[in-house]
Write a structure and sequence with these properties.
- The chain is α/β, with parallel strands linked by helices.
- It has a single domain, classed as P-loop containing nucleotide triphosphate hydrolases (Rossmann fold, 3-Layer(aba) Sandwich), CATH 3.40.50.
- The protein has 11 helices and 12 strands.
- The chain has helices at 5-8, 63-70, 93-99, 120-131, 136-149, 166-178, 196-213, 224-227, 248-253, 258-265, 306-310; strands at 12-27, 32-48, 52-56, 78-83, 86-87, 103-106, 184-188, 216-221, 233-238, 241-247, 316-317, 324-325.
- β9 (233-238) and β10 form a beta hairpin.
- The radius of gyration is 21 Å and the shape is globular.
- The protein starts with a helix and ends in a 6-residue tail after the last strand.
Length: 331
């Protein structure tokens, strides 16, 4: 992928401005709110047209929640989301519904996201029936075309999801997501439930569709090894916050945040002779209901100092290439 494409993008298709999403913690017979889980806490990012922004981090860091807030599947507690330059908070429910054809999602579980009682033609055709109101013949032709586009045999469109393999079911989900030719798709752990060999096929398929249709992706994943081959830029999340954002090649060549360095040290390398030190982080991830003061990574950071415990670092740009890091003493 072209790492400079993001810099060259003249406009943003989606933008988050200081977005937060808190979930209330309730206790007692009256279900009183006694605290909040800060799943996403003050995140700002922008994704250009046709760009792939990879988002990585440990489980529970807020990646999927951020993706759902961007799509307005969940409302933000604070902050603002803009789609194509317009604030989604100012849109009515009917206007948001109309925008669904421009914003889609590919879910992690290819079986759980497909209705087992629907035929494949009905699953893929549902967005077209709702938004385009195509006639039966046109709908069937469009479904067949979409299946062929994602590498499925169109003659199998009258079968049920359980009659397909895991990789084929994910292709069905992708066909449904691109049915209305959206400009932005959230791929939420779209390959993590698949075999390694199938993962590469799906990643290649997403890249091909992006080239043909000009789709922008928010590609959410656990590990940095998957996002490298698809993403123009990568953001690293930790405990509800972005700690580093960089063009992909630069992030792999010169990570600046200690958490990113630890993640990269765990990525397998194809050459056994290419040795490097594995960094094992001490302790557990703190609770998002009670995050640490100052830098949220400081309890596990081998370089933490007094300032890290007292003052929260801001995400700031450190070079002309747009590399950003939230660390007082970045590497």
């Amino acid at each position: 992928m072209n790492a400079e494409r993001a810099v060259a993008a003249s406009t943003h298709i989606i933008e988050a401005r200081n977005v937060s999403k808190y979930f209330p913690i309730r206790q007692g017979l009256l279900s009183r709110v006694v605290g909040h889980v800060k799943a996403v806490d003050g995140v700002s990012l922008a994704i250009g047209r046709g760009e792939t922004f990879g988002l990585v981090g440990e489980s529970g860091c807020g990646k999927s929640t951020l993706g759902r807030v961007l799509l307005q599947l969940q409302s933000a507690t604070a902050g603002e989301v803009l789609f194509d330059g317009t604030s989604l908070q100012e849109r009515s429910a009917s206007q948001i519904r109309d925008l669904r054809q421009h914003m889609q999602i590919i879910f992690q579980d290819p079986m759980g996201s497909l209705n087992p009682r629907f035929l494949v033609r009905d699953i893929i055709g549902e967005p077209l029936r709702i938004h385009r109101k195509l006639r039966a013949r046109e709908l069937d032709e469009r479904v067949a075309s979409l299946m062929e586009l994602v590498g499925l045999d169109a003659s199998r469109r009258n079968r049920y999801p359980h009659e397909f393999s895991g990789g084929q079911r994910q292709r069905i989900g992708i066909a449904r997501a691109i049915a209305l030719t959206p400009s932005f798709i959230v791929a939420d752990e779209a390959v993590s439930a698949l075999d390694v060999s199938v993962q590469s096929q799906i990643v290649n398929l997403l890249a091909m569709l992006q080239q043909q249709l000009g789709i922008a992706y928010l590609f959410i994943a656990h590990g940095l090894n998957v996002v490298r081959h698809l993403s123009d830029r990568v953001g690293v999340m930790y405990l509800g916050k972005l700690v580093e954002v960089s063009p992909t090649d630069e992030l792999y060549r010169q990570p600046l945040h200690p958490y990113t360095v630890a993640l990269l040290s765990a990525v397998p390398r194809p050459n056994p002779s290419d040795k490097r030190q594995r960094i094992v982080l001490q302790g557990d991830v703190p609770s998002p209901a009670n995050p640490p003061t100052g830098c949220r990574f400081h309890p596990r950071c081998p370089y933490a100092q007094t300032r890290c415990r007292q003052e929260e670092p801001l995400l700031r740009t450190v070079n002309s290439g747009g590399h950003q890091v939230a660390c007082h003493y970045h590497l």
